[in-house]
Amino acid sequence: MTMMHILLILCFCLSVVSSTVSPCAKWNTTGVTIAGTGEAGNSSFQIDSAKGIFIHKERNELYVADFSNDRVQKFLLADPSRIGITVASGIKNPMKVYVDDDISGPTVYVSLRFLNRVEKWMNGATQGVQVGGECQLCSGVSVDKEKNVYMSESNRHRVVQWSPRTNMTTVVAGKTDTNGSTSDLLNHPQGIYVNRDGSIIYVADMWNSRIQNWTTASREGTTVAGSNQGTEGHDPETLDYPNDVIVDDETNVVYVIDTSNNRVQRWKPFASEGDTIVGDRGAGNATNQLNKPVDLAFDMKGNLYVMDMENNRVEMFELIDNRPCSLESAASSSILGSMITTIIISIISFISMIHI
Ligand SMILES: *[C@@H]1O[C@H](CO)[C@@H](O)[C@H](O)[C@H]1NC(C)=O
Ligand SMILES: *[C@@H]1O[C@H](CO)[C@@H](O)[C@H](O)[C@H]1NC(C)=O
Ligand SMILES: *[C@@H]1O[C@H](CO)[C@@H](O)[C@H](O)[C@H]1NC(C)=O
Ligand SMILES: *[C@@H]1O[C@H](CO)[C@@H](O)[C@H](O)[C@H]1NC(C)=O
Ligand SMILES: *[C@@H]1O[C@H](CO)[C@@H](O)[C@H](O)[C@H]1NC(C)=O
Ligand SMILES: *[C@@H]1O[C@H](CO)[C@@H](O)[C@H](O)[C@H]1NC(C)=O
């Protein structure tokens, strides 16, 4: 390994470290439109009632489940032209989208609400392949590192996992065909977030206006955002028909798209209430407003993207303050920072000694 290699690896590690979003981060509450024109349409600039978004962080690509146009669009975030490229077409009413890496490149998993299934579209494919069995009123979709596919069946009040290894489908959250607000039940689950090793499944339990955390082998979920009683509301303790959720695997902070409140809420671990990070200014199309937001995503830099459904646009809210939460953590992070610097300097001087 040359010194160049080592430096590159170090820079990479540092950039990964610095991309962590602080649990106390702030975003510009004025958004910038990144995709869509604000008017529904089927041109390559437009989207129509899109319901799902996904960001492939390393590739810096935004994928949109363009519901009423029966297609999945890809937008290159570095390209200011905002032209969408169709990566799946001839499908029907895509709800949510997840993009995974395969040898052939990015593979798109898309849930098709009325076709009751999830389809997998390989890079460059002209046709999708169904994965797993039937998924009634299919909504959320996610994939873990073993390529197990998770799907939420809104109509059957459950989340299932399909294993490509065994070709078996198992229920991992909720109880089949039973809805309610006790901890063992779900009520019309929508978007889901599954961690990479598939050990934790977060569910936007929509009709219960709460986010539930289910771990493998548990028979009930715990509420990590919203009222555990399943009561909707507009205060910091409640949510109103949340459509999707993203959890930061490092900090365990839960980010919720609080659809009927037209806002994005952040719940820190063990918090009894959330705080609004963007929106909550009534339904509307101003740059600081949302109208029925249904999905969210973050890019590599921690900027927040919102699928602003009724406005037919994807808004980007820039991360503007990423300082740690308290002075204590500020102190410890600066200690960590100086430790890392010291280590790098020692490695570099060690290597230059070897070269001499
Ligand atoms: C927020 O974004 C708007 C629109 O891009 C910009 O005019 C404004 O200066 C930004 N505010 C901050 C605090 O960065
Ligand atoms: C935004 O809303 C206003 C008032 O409701 C409307 O007149 C305008 O056409 C909307 N703009 C777009 C781009 O939809
Ligand atoms: C696109 O929309 C136009 C109307 O705006 C319509 O005439 C046309 O048929 C649509 N194309 C497709 C492929 O749906
Ligand atoms: C997987 O299971 C489904 C139904 O449970 C069946 O139709 C299909 O043929 C199976 N696929 C393989 C490769 O065994
Ligand atoms: C359960 O879902 C059905 C429709 O799928 C609905 O009619 C019923 O009100 C729901 N029950 C509860 C407790 O929300
Ligand atoms: C979800 O549950 C797991 C297992 O108990 C826990 O490690 C994790 O922190 C929980 N997530 C949140 C956001 O509380």
From TrEMBL:
<feature type="signal peptide">
    <location>
        <begin position="1"/>
        <end position="19"/>
    </location>
</feature>
<feature type="transmembrane region" description="Helical">
    <location>
        <begin position="335"/>
        <end position="354"/>
    </location>
</feature>
<protein>
    <submittedName>
        <fullName>Uncharacterized protein</fullName>
    </submittedName>
</protein>
<feature type="region of interest" description="Disordered">
    <location>
        <begin position="218"/>
        <end position="242"/>
    </location>
</feature>
<keyword id="KW-0472">Membrane</keyword>
<keyword id="KW-1133">Transmembrane helix</keyword>
<dbReference type="InterPro" id="IPR011042">
    <property type="entry name" value="6-blade_b-propeller_TolB-like"/>
</dbReference>
<dbReference type="GO" id="GO:0008270">
    <property type="term" value="F:zinc ion binding"/>
</dbReference>
<keyword id="KW-0812">Transmembrane</keyword>
<dbReference type="InterPro" id="IPR050952">
    <property type="entry name" value="TRIM-NHL_E3_ligases"/>
</dbReference>
<keyword id="KW-0732">Signal</keyword>
<feature type="compositionally biased region" description="Polar residues">
    <location>
        <begin position="218"/>
        <end position="231"/>
    </location>
</feature>
